[in-house]
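sry for the spam today, last one i promise. struct tokens for design, 130 residues
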């Protein structure tokens, strides 16, 4: 059972927890059509609810989902609306926390997990063209 969590503060100021990539998530990612979709799977499946600060009032607590805006229900936040800097940060943190970005003890880029997963060669963004 994968109970390890890491609390993060996103570049945009949001707060969330991430978990390590599980073998089931890796198997799902290997079925992805491209590196961007693989990165989207890792980020949505390994990121808990995000607490976004608001100006005056309660913060918004939303679950990051890989859905179109119009398909989201209350409490969901579409991945396409996530700031690119937050996406790259989450991707890098998830891969690092999962031990997927290190090769023979050398520090690699945030998504250099090509030998263990189908992650992109650099921080993939959710809105990048295929």
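last one done:
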């Amino acid at each position: 059972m994968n109970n390890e969590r890491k609390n993060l503060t996103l570049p945009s100021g949001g707060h969330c927890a991430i978990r390590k990539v599980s073998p089931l998530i890796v198997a799902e990612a290997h079925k992805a059509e491209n590196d961007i979709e693989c990165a989207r799977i890792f980020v949505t499946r390994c990121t808990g609810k995000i607490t976004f600060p608001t100006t005056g009032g309660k913060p918004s607590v939303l679950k990051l989902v890989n859905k179109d805006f119009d398909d989201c229900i209350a409490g969901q936040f579409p991945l396409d609306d996530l700031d690119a800097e937050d996406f790259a940060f989450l991707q890098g943190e998830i891969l690092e926390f999962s031990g997927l970005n290190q090769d023979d003890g050398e520090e690699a880029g945030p998504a250099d997990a090509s030998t263990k997963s189908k992650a992109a060669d650099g921080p993939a963004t959710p809105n990048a063209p295929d």
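Helices lie at 23-30, 35-46, 84-98. ok im logging off now
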